[in-house]
Design goal:
Strand content: 25-35%
Number of helices: 4
Shape: elongated
Number of strands: 6
Order of helices and strands: EEHHHHEEEE
Oligomer: single chain
Helix content: 40-55%
Largest sheet: 4 strands, antiparallel
Structural class: alpha+beta
Radius of gyration: 28 Å
Amino acid sequence: MNRGVFTGLGLVGFVFPARESHTPAVGRRAAIRLLLLLPLLALVFTGCALKDAKDDAQAVVTSYFQSMATANYDAAMINYDPEFFKKSSREAWKKFLTKNASKLGAYKKHTINGWRIFRRADAPKASFVELQCKSVYANNTALEKFTLCRQPGDTEFRIIAHTIDSVALRSD
């Protein structure tokens, strides 16, 4: 065994004995680095996918509010999933939106207060996003919660649940 190798920095071999072959140690180190790097890469790519899902869902909610700003309820309802209208008919929901608009006033703006991305056991391949918004209308404010879903193969999220809470709406 070589006891020392002289370099410009001094005798290195006395502190770190020279090995005959560096290949196994280098291979092990590379494998360990790769194993440590994989979870980090997974987090980065997952983080990007989560941000994309949030941004995509937010675009649908913004489209909804743009339609509400012009009192175009039919255009607003395009953002809803057909399943939504199995629980409440299009006509009933349009009447609900019209009644709320008369109490809240014209739409002014909204801000996203909170969001979460999740999966459900009954639809494991679908992506779900929940957005909580503070909406400002001419006569009052409202807290609105949207649950959106994107099924595999779909390009856009659709609203599957929507609640509107405002002091102005509680009088009925």
